[in-house]
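Hey, can you fold this?
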Amino acid sequence: MSKREEIARAALQQFQAHGFHATGINTITQAAGVPKGSFYNHFSSKEESALETLNRYAATLRFDMLTEPGRPALVRLRAHFEHLGRDTLDNGFVRGCLAGNLGAEVADHNEEIRSAVRHGFDRWASHIQQVLDEAQEAGDLDSALDTSATALFILSAWEGTLISARVEKSAAPVEAFFRIVFDVVLR
């Protein structure tokens, strides 16, 4: 019977909790409850499993919240980040954004992972920009605001927020993110 699902879930959990370099294949297979050889039946390398985890992680980001009909654009954007913030708080500030973590830890050393992280960030920023464009069209956001640059800024601010929250073991950076982004930048 295939153990790919168990291995992929365990890899996501271990990479999120401990990072790429601190997570060994033994750690992943132990967490999955499978023999080490099972890993190589499904993945050629730890890097390949990291690429799989990035795809799985993207599904947890709930981009669907950004396109939910019947709600104002900025309300949807805030709900999206509130969802992500709850995950950070609920997990005791020990997990950040997997894409950000892998980008910081591995991007200089592995072109395939760097490219996958960049693609993921580009996709996320595009979703944010679409919401900002909708808000401008509805008259809820200053029409002079550069939505592309603002989307990149919001995403970058969020990644920095997660790092700060983990370092401080505090919700204060998350609260500051919401205050500055939604009460100042997008006011």
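Oh, and this one too while you're at it.
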Amino acid sequence: MSITRRGARRSVRILGVASASAAVLLGLSGSAFACQIGDFTAEAGCAGDQGQIIITDTDSSRTTAHITVFETNDAVDTKIAEANVKGSAQGTKTPIDVAWKAGTTYRVNVKVNSGKFKFDQFINPDLVTPAEACKKKESPSPSASDSPSPAPSTSAPAESATPTPSASESSSAPAGTSDNAPSPAAGDSNLAETGASSNTGLIAGVAAALVAVGGGAVFFGMRRRGSRDNG
């Protein structure tokens, strides 16, 4: 059975489409594993008060790339940091410590020289840092309720130098008296206790005179009675 021209043309067309499809697939697979500048991005970040330039590398071939960070002032680039990074299909973030300034433009260069992957380009667009620099987070001051209460003292209370008399002892002592009051001397009379004064001698003399008068009256009365009995 001979092949007609029409059938041969159709077969050639099918082979051409298949070849083109295979070429496209090979090109896509090759570009998927290629290391290129589009695999790299840069952003500014902070670790406390330390500034950082964070490089994200989505290169699935895991080719090592050399990163150089430049600070741009008046169209003049000044190198301030550099590091090596290695990416992954999921994306690998590599922080580079940079004391970046707020509102400043930085350029990030990526250089790859590894076998079939070779390029030396800047990440586009340039990195412009935020308007505020990194600041250290301040710890909140403790409130009065958070302050620890003072621990109770465990030392024994100091004893008073002079013991305080108990209620029973103070009530048993007679009112108006004191244990320290001086006692009367042995040679003193009891006149001080009875209220006698220095008029005691005068009173004694008057009493003696009255006794004498009374005795004289008795004497004269007896004489008169005797004279009556005799008469």
